Amino acid sequence: MLLKVKAKSQISENEITDEHVYLERRSLIKKMGFLGAGSLLASTTSAQARGLDFFSSKEEQAFVTSPIKFKASSSDSQVLTPENKVISHNNFYEFGTKKSDPVNNAQSFKVNPWQLKVSGEVNKPFTLDYDDLFSRYAIEERIYRLRCVEAWSMVIPWLGFSLSNIIKQADPTSKAKYVAFETLHDPEQMPGQRSRRVGGGIDYPYVEGLRLDEAMNPLTLMSVGLYGKTLPPQNGAPIRLVVPWKYGFKSIKSVVGIKLVEKMPPTTWNILAPREYGFYANVNPDVDHPRWSQASERRITSGGLFARNRIETLPFNGYGEEVSSLYKNMNLRKYY
Ligand SMILES: Nc1nc2c(c(=O)[nH]1)N[C@H]1C(S)=C(S)[C@@H](COP(=O)(O)O)O[C@H]1N2
Ligand SMILES: [Mo]
Question: Which of 100, 138, 259, 294 counts the highest number of beta carbons within 10 A?
Answer without folding.
Answer: 259
